Amino acid sequence: MIDVETIREQFERHYGIHPRLIVRGPGRVNLIGEHTDYNDGFVFPAAIDRATYVAARPRDDALVHIVAVDMHDEDEFALDAPIEHSADHPWSNYIRGVVKGLLVAGHTLGGANLLITSDVPRGSGLSSSAALEVATGYAFQLLNRLNILGEELALLAQGAENTFVGVQCGIMDQFISALGRSDHALLLDCRDLSYRPVPLPANAQIVVCDSHTERRLSGSAYNQRREECEAAVRLFKRWYPKISALRDVSVAQLREHEADLPEPVRARARHVITENDRAQRSAAALEAGDIATFGRLMNESHASLRDDYEVSIPAMDALVAAAQAVPGCYGSRMTGAGFGGCTVSLVETGAIERFKHDVAAAFRQATGRDTTIYVCRASDGVGRALPE
Ligand code: ADP
Ligand code: MG
Fold first, then answer.
1. For residue 173, which atom of ligand 1 is closest to its CA?
2. Is the pLDDT of residue 279 over 70?
3. Are residues 175 and 215 in the same domain?
4. 229 and 265 both lie in a single domain
5. Taking the CB of residue 253, how many other CB atoms lie within 10 A of it?
6. Do 182 and 225 belong together in one domain?
7. Do 205 and 332 form a contact (C-beta atoms < 8 A)?
8. Is the Cβ atom of 219 under 6 angstroms away from ligand 1?
9. How many domains does the chain have?
10. Which pLDDT belongs to residue 218?
11. Model's pTM, two decimal places?
12. Residue 167 pLDDT
């Protein structure tokens, strides 16, 4: 964990004066609802107690200077000239994109000195990118006394990643980083951004295991899956002309027409439609205090991602199997787009130490690799960082 005092000292060392404010934007994990976002469906993420911190102080010129502690790098750009993409400092584009988005939206911004540091692992699937964007946007909002609502901030951050950085992510990561709630997950409807906070069980923890596998194939396979979902919608329209996304097809409707669909579209549609149903049922199960059902739905989600959506890899399957075998683990699944990255499990608090030990050993046995395990607490969305 990073403490506020350390960040304050780092800022003073670089800029010779203390920061005006320090903002924290959390990373996130999606508990269930995978590959449902671009099908207008439901996702069920929680913000976690790992975050990106932006310390800031206004300047009296129109420059933005950034010290990126974790990248051992610095960058600077002007607010009164067109903000360009930076090839030399790729990390800076997340900040440049957010600032440009604020300017395009008509906000007036003053220059600032920033210092950025994070304990969200980068590129592991816990969304260090959204944490950085949301924290940056919030810091500029405070410095310039803007009044941007959480949903607007999330859309601005997503826009920066889509158009400035060039990654076609959905809205989930930025939304949960902006609007997460401590000890809750949010059931988010990706169609209209309505959401419902659902309390997480008091006697269980969210555990993330990083497989440290490179997500190499993910780009092309992701685009292919999106096309297959569009093909499925075109086919379902023959029977249900009013639908516009797979989210509009119920499990009963799927069952009725499943046999008429060609492969692989049939299997892809089956994953999305049942996953969307699982996401909603899992939220209801937690609300009813039924953790066992929630865990079973997580396990079913993994099987569906592996067999029907075909986005898992043997290392992820091994990590999930290792978790599911531990007594006190309610359920486990791969999380994120797939082809590597992290798994998420729900584990009884009393079983955490055994879980860490057994999963590390079984994963090593199966793959020869080490996993990094993060026991997470659901945290609040972006806000001012407070001293411990
Ligand atoms: P993920 O969001 O899953 O962690 P991404 O590839 O989407 O992975 O985003 C990681 C990128 O975001 C990094 O390569 C870097 O450019 C930027 N980034 C994330 N955290 C930081 C940080 N603390 N400082 C500077 N840049 C960061
Ligand atoms: Mg990202």
1. 2
2. yes
3. no
4. yes
5. 15
6. no
7. no
8. no
9. 2
10. 62
11. 0.96
12. 85
Q: Which of 2, 92, 129 best tests ligand 1's pocket when mutated (most atoms within 8 Å of CB)? A: 129
Query: 130: CA distance to ligand 2 center in Å?
Result: 6
- Asked if residue 388 has pLDDT above 70, the reply is no
**Is 90 near ligand 1, meaning CB less than 6 Å away?**
yes
> Which residue range is the domain that position 310 belongs to?
204-376
In the reported structure, the alpha carbon of residue 123 is separated from the centroid of ligand 1 by a whole-number distance in angstroms of: 6
Distance 173 CA to ligand 2 centre (A): 8
User: Chain centroid to CA 121: how far?
Assistant: 12
The finding on whether 89 has its CB within 6 A of some atom of ligand 1 is: no
Are both 191 and 208 inside the same structural domain? no
Q: CATH number, domain at 298?
A: 3.30.70.890
Q: What is the pLDDT of residues 204-245, one digit of tens each?
A: 999 999 999 876 656 788 889 999 999 999 999 999 999 999
DSSP string across 275-343:
HHHHHHHHHHHHHTT-HHHHHHHHHHHHHHHHHTS----HHHHHHHHHHHTSTTEEEEEEESSSSSSEE
User: Does 357 share its domain with 209?
Assistant: yes
CA of 86 to the centre of ligand 2 (A): 18
Q: Residue 175 sits in a domain of what CATH number?
A: 3.30.230.10
Residue 94: CB within 6 Å of ligand 1?
yes
Pair (193, 217) in one structural domain = no
3-state secondary structure of 146: coil
CA angle 217, 219, 224 (to 5 degrees): 95
Known catalytic residues?
173
Residue 166's pLDDT band (cuts 50, 70, 90):
confident
Average pLDDT of the chain, as a whole number: 96
312-329 pLDDT tens trace: 999 999 999 999 999 999
**Two tokens, residue 330:** 């309610």
In ligand 1, which atom is closest to the CA atom of 73? 25
Q: For residues 129 and 223, state if they share a domain.
A: no
Same domain, 193 and 74: yes
- In this predicted structure, what is the pLDDT of residue 214? 74
